[in-house]
Each structure stands twice: as C-alpha cells, then as structure tokens.
Automatic annotation (TrEMBL):
This is STAS/SEC14 domain-containing protein.
C-alpha cells in the first residue's frame, strides 16, 4: 500500500493497493490521505492502482466503504481505477454502490486510468 502526490500541476493523488489489503492498511492509507489532501485544496482526483491486489477480505471491505466516503468528503472529484481481475472489479462495484461513490471510472491498464485524469 502506498499513497503519494502523483502530479502537482493537476492535483492527483495515487493510491496503490497490493496483495491482500488489511483493515490496518486502510487506516494507514486514510491517515496519509488526510495529511496529503491538505496540500491539494478542496478538489483533487485519485488514481487507484489495484492491478496487483487480491480480493478484499470482508472486514477490509467495510473499511474501504468508509475510505471512499472520506475521500469524497475531503474533496475527491473523480477516481480512476486500474483494476486487475474480475473478482476485484466486482467487489469494487459493490463497494462503490455501498459508499454512494458515483464518480469512479475503471480501466484495464494503469496508463488508461492516468490518461483519463489528465484529459
């Protein structure tokens, strides 16, 4: 898991989820996101790389719903997600529905996800 500012000219935050994501990793990411969002102002985009992630365990899914709600409250306009497998994509769709996240776009590759935000 990592969180970083991807582009300072166009405020884009990058979040990378790898392997099996634990609730503790989501909490760590949330702390980093809250700190980073202060430098991005009240409007930013998020690039999420899930290509190397396994499915979310049930306890992590609940944390991810809260995570998406928090991102929206902090000022996220759009999320562009590079999704690896069909299971992760199905889970992400359900999580987005549960968090009422309407501005998420999914892509097969990282380059497609990034290009969408840079348009």
């Amino acid at each position: 898991m990592s969180v970083r500012l991807l582009d300072s000219d166009t405020p884009i935050m990058e979040i990378i989820w790898d392997g099996i994501v634990t609730p503790e990793q989501v909490e760590q990411a949330n702390i980093q996101i809250q700190q980073l969002s202060k430098s991005l102002g009240d409007s930013f985009d998020v690039l999420v790389d899930m290509r190397n992630m396994k499915a979310f365990p049930q306890d992590t899914k609940e944390k991810i719903v809260e995570h998406q709600k928090m991102l929206t409250q902090l000022g996220m306009k759009r999320a562009s997600v590079a999704v690896g497998g069909a299971i992760a994509k199905m889970q992400l769709n359900r999580i987005s529905k549960d968090s009422n996240h309407q501005t998420e776009f999914q892509w097969e590759t990282y380059d497609e996800a990034l290009a969408f935000l840079l348009k």
